[in-house]
Design brief:
This protein has helices at 14-23, 36-59, 69-78. It has one domain. It is mainly α. Helices cover 54% and strands 0% of the residues. It starts with 13 loop residues before the first helix and ends with a helix. The protein has three helices and no strands.
């Protein structure tokens, strides 16, 4: 059995703990606490990153299939000041 409680930290009290004891009586449980705001920040950051990738994909130059990419890379690396 798995149960998720989402509540404000100020609402954690002895009544909640007693309820948990009654609900899982005689069983071993694992309690994990995580901040919900961090989850929302990660979600917003992920959405922004995905949008940035889409924007870059839409504005990237189109390279013809006939262009020798390897040659362009080699010329770029060998045309420096060295």
């Amino acid at each position: 059995m798995q149960t998720t409680f989402r509540l404000k930290a100020k609402d954690i009290n002895s009544t909640l703990l007693s309820s948990l004891q009654d609900l899982f009586e005689g069983q071993e449980v694992e309690i994990t606490i995580k901040l919900v705001t961090q989850e929302k920040e990660v979600e917003a950051s992920t959405k922004a990153l995905i949008q940035m990738i889409k924007d870059n994909r839409n504005s990237a130059p189109v390279i013809s299939k006939d262009v020798d990419i390897r040659k362009l890379i080699d010329e770029t690396h060998h045309s420096g000041p060295f």
